[in-house]
Amino acid sequence: MALKPELSPPACGRTLARVWQDIDRPPDRHTLTCADCRRARNSLMRLDAVTETLREHDLRHPAFRPPPGLKPAVLAVAGAHARGGVQLAPAGARNGGVEITEDALTAVVRRAADGVGGVRARRCRVDLVPDAGFGLRIHLRTAVAPGVDIRRTMDFLRRNIRAAVVASVGIIPHTVHLTVEDLYDD
Q1: Cα dist. 166→3, 56, 92, 161, 172 in Å?
Q2: Are 125 and 106 in contact (CB under 8 A)?
C-alpha cells in the first residue's frame, strides 16, 4: 500500500493532529463537507491500517518481542519523571546516604545562581560521576549583565553553588561546569 511521503495540513485551518485525533470516530459535519479534511482523513486512515498491520506482525514475530524486564524499566523511568525527575543517589553525604531528584538539585543550583548579582541561570543539568565515587557533576549555562567581570563572577558563582549544595544535601560537588552563553541587558 503506497502512501504519500508528506501530507500537508488542510487549507481550512484544521490541523493534521485534529484530523488524527478523530480518526477512530465517524467523520464530523466539517470533515464531511471539507475536501481537504476528507483527503487528509483518508490518507491517515491508510497510515493507521498499515501501522496496525505492522504492529500485528511484530507481535507475532519472536525477533520483535521486547527483552524481559524492558517494560518495568521503562515504567520506572516514567514514574521517576512523574515524581519530579530522575532519582540521584550520590555517595559521600556527610550523614550517610542520600537520594535526591535531579529537579530538586537543579533548583538548588538555580537558587544559588540567582543570588549572584549580574548572573542569570539558564539551562542546568546534574549527573553522577561514576569514576569519582559517584560524585555530582553540575553543568550550568548562564547569561551575564554587561560590565560583569566574568572570571571573578564565575569563580564566586562556583563557590556559591558548592556551598548551596553542601548546605542542602551535604555533598560536595565533584565538578561545577559553568558556561557563559549570552549577555542580557535590562
Answers
A1: 58, 53, 11, 9, 5
A2: yes
**Tally of domains within the chain:** 2
The enclosing H or E element of 35 equals helix 35-60
Per residue in 109-147, pLDDT tens? Answer: 999 998 899 999 999 988 877 665 557 889 999 999 999
Full domain range(s) for residue 100: 87-183
CATH classification at residue 95: 3.30.70.1350
What are the pLDDT digits (tens) for 64-107?
Answer: 777 777 777 667 666 655 555 555 655 555 555 666 778 888 88
Stated pTM of the model:
0.52
